[in-house]
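User: Can you predict the 3D structure for this chain?
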Amino acid sequence: MWGYSVNLEGIKVQAQTKRLADVVYEKLCDAIVDGTFAPGERVRDGELADQLSVSRMPVREALQRLERQGLIEMVASRFTRVTDVTPELPAQSAEFLGYQLGLSLRAALPALDEAQRAHAAALTRKISAVIGDDPTAAFVATGDLITYVGEQSENTLFESVVSDAWLQLARNLRGAFPVTKPVAELRADFESVATLIERGDAIGAEIGIRNVFLLLPDQPGPAAAVEGLWADLEESRES
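Assistant: Here is the predicted structure, written as structure tokens:
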């Protein structure tokens, strides 16, 4: 699973319409999120440049951008490596996602008209539709929802915070929605949130999302849902 070969498909075509450093950045993002570059693994800009058939400059720019996002650690004249995933990070990431999605809904709903609320509700129901069969698709659908409500919130900080954090969330949660409850309960919870969104009940929708992530005062939080998420990596390190 853990290798050192970046998928180069489409890089030349993409580079025709995007800055080369942005294309390289997107390829490296994919490699970090899908595990091609494992946590703690060293990366070398020269080797990456050769693989991607580009100069070192766009590779270095992409690595610096990833460093600012907390996914690459660079120590001058020593090493460049993917940041590690500590045992606490998956649970912290799930908590952040739950709180931030709830806050984004609370901030956005008062500004949404009926059509926009209907769209947000449809995005919520999309999560519900796939969560039992495909946690990866549910995570992507959650990204669609939080991006949409962040854009509509009229508060640029919500949008920028999620945008900056999303790559870390995807890596730390391995691109999967944390299944915090039996699937039937989650689907019912999301349906309830969708109905609250349609009604414009911002406080209710926020509470509903916190309930999904087990973040209400009498709930234990989502840690159990992500326990052992990185067990295969720990096993490979020990062997």
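The first strand starts at residue 72 and ends at 75. Residues 8-16 have pLDDT under 50 and may be disordered.
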